[in-house]
Amino acid sequence: MPMTKKPETAESLPASEQIDRKIAELGDWRGKTLARMRKLIHEAGDGVEETWKWMGTPVFERDGIVCTGETYKDKVKLTFAKGASLPDPKGLFNSSLEGNARRAIDIGEGETVDATAFKALIRAAIELNRSKVKTKAAVKSPTKTATKTATTTAAKSAAAQSAKKTQPAVKKTAK
Q1: 53 lies in a domain?
Q2: DSSP string spanning 131-173?
Q3: Residue 155: inside a domain, yes or no?
Q4: How far are the Cα atoms of 33, 119, 174 from residue 46, in angstroms, in the given order?
Q5: Residue 7, CB half-sphere, CA atoms under 13 Å: how many?
Q6: How many domains is the chain built from?
Q7: Over the stretch 98-138, which tens digit does the pLDDT of each residue have?
Q8: Which residues contact 132 (CB under 8 A, 6 or more apart)?
Q9: d(CA 90, CA 76)
Q10: Which structural domain, as residue segments, surrounds residue 106?
Q11: Whole-prediction pTM
């Protein structure tokens, strides 16, 4: 009796393929926006891994969650798990501003995000995650606490570099 292969379900695919499918299924400005932001995330953060969580949310991780890429009818939302702890000199965060941990960037139809400022924010989020990993290691080895301070300073410096540009961070583009 020949073996039959089970049909592939979205849940059985690698996360990157699930995200590819989501972008293709959207087929409109939201898919293009999510694809652009995904590309910028990978350009900014070497070694960022894609995961698929919470019944269909693309998640970008490096030593912890960097951000999620959610899509809604009227926006693409990039939520940074530790956004409240990140420097945001260009004012990219425009949503979820009231919490103590998360911050988000809502991108509506016709809007674009400043690529340089966004990449700096991604790098700062990665550095913050790394510092948390190093902090856990420092508990076992107290001599590494200076590394945590240096890493946090480096994350703030990376974001501050993008502050030198004066273009608006999220802007409407002509249709």
Answers
A1: yes
A2: HHHHHHHHHH-GGGHHHHHHHHHHHHHHHHHHTT--S-SEEE-
A3: yes
A4: 21, 11, 32
A5: 2
A6: 1
A7: 989 999 999 999 999 999 999 999 999 999 999 987 666 65
A8: 63, 64
A9: 19
A10: 14-169
A11: 0.74
